[in-house]
Amino acid sequence: MLQAAYGAVDLLVVGRFGTTSGLSAVSTGSQVLNLVTFVITQFAMGITVLIARYIGENKKQHIGPLIGGSTIIYAIISVVLFVIMIGFSRQIAVLMQAPQEAVDLTSVYVRICGGGIFFIVAYNLLAAIFRGLGDSKSPLIFVAVACVVNIVGDLVLVAGFKMDAAGAAIATVAAQAVSVGFAIVLLVKKQLVKITGDDFKVNEHCVRALKVGAPLALQECLTQISFLALCAFVNRLGLTASSGYGVACKIVNFAMLVPSSLMQSMASFVSQNVGAGKEKRAKKAMFTGMGVGLVVGCVVFSFVMFKGDLLTGIFTTDAAVVQNGYDYLKGFALETIVTAVLFSMVGYFNGHDKTVWVMVQGLVQTLLVRLPLAYYMSIQPDASLTKIGFAAPEATIFGIVLNVIFYLWMNRKRNNL
Fold first, then answer.
1. Which of 67, 63, 44, 43 is nearest to 55 (CA)?
2. pLDDT tens profile 120-166
3. How far is the C-alpha of 195 from the C-alpha of 400, rounded, in Å?
4. Within 10 Å of residue 277's Cβ, how many Cβ atoms?
5. Which of 193, 273, 281, 303 is at 20 to 30 A from 370, Cα to Cα?
């Protein structure tokens, strides 16, 4: 919840104290930042899974080289992202079809976030390390610290100094920087792993983590690109539609909290149990996750479907933006239920190192169902955000069918061994 609140604060404060153009800029710019953040998170999933596997196999001496080598690789990734986001921020804003009134502000938002990309990458790397070590409380503390700093920064820079989207971006980067510093201090103080200077080089362990994380990152990259395309489709409908969609996306982030958390924690739990030869516990975790997710999903569905206008009204007082946001949520609502099943299965497969399959099924959902359907809906004479939003649950239902087939095939193959 704190992670979602952290992401929603910028939009909330800009919606209340900034301009409609600024709200659209943060909406579009945050989609770009989500692409970077989620891809890095999926890359880091390889580190989480591998650390958990080494613990399960009692090979803790490999954890130091894994972390050291991964640090070098992620530093290189940060440099590449820095150059792209700083040097091509305006081109990115235009490519996203940001409304004309919001192009400059979108460019500024992307450029400032690009300047702090080192902190954003470092935060996700550190969170992955702690989760792999079985410590899920520390990442919670990191997010809490970042959330507080971000709230204060937004209020001072946006509400106080009227810096609009630029102030929101600065607050985001500052929050990540403080959180990274806090995480490093905590990692050193707890002495959870032993890392030496010789570990900071590319080695077989970090390469193995990349092989696990790369398919997930590629899938997430193409998935997020599809969301960028979806954002571009919506931007063509005008400034209020763009702003409403941005508000709806923040509410969606809250709605996806439980299934997303279950997926991440399940990958580590399943990996440890597979390493220890306890497959029955791994399966039980998957079905338990589905049950918990479905119960929570039904509650969230009720709020999103029937009280979506009240939820979007938290972020802005503009009636047109509120209605556009609610229109999208009505189409998206079913996703809050079906995702509980899909994400639990994905977490189970990640824990089994079946990341290539996770990539394949994700790409099929995105490229063959969600994106084509959303585009088709956006070009109809009676195009609406409700119809565009319905593309998400349709793709997820298709993905569940694929994953059930793969699960049955995997079990049959294991039983024949």
1. 63
2. 899 889 988 998 888 878 887 888 888 899 999 999 999 999 999 99
3. 41
4. 10
5. 303
In angstroms, the CA 56 to CA 348 distance is 16
| Token reading at 64 | 């130091």
d(CA 163, CA 158): 5
- Mind listing the pLDDT tens digit for each residue in 99-124? 888 999 999 999 999 999 999 899 88
Q: Say how far apart CA 415 and CA 299 lie, in whole Å.
A: 38
Residue 415 in tokens: 């039983």
Q: How confident is the model at residue 63 (pLDDT cuts 50, 70, 90)?
A: very high
Residue 394 contacts residue 370 (beta carbons within 8 Å): yes
| Both structure tokens of 12 | 């909330």
Quote the CA–CA distance of 23 and 354 in Å, as a whole number: 39
Helices of type H across 137-203: 137-154, 164-190
Measured distance CA(99)–CA(3) in Å, rounded: 28
CA distance 198 to 196: 5
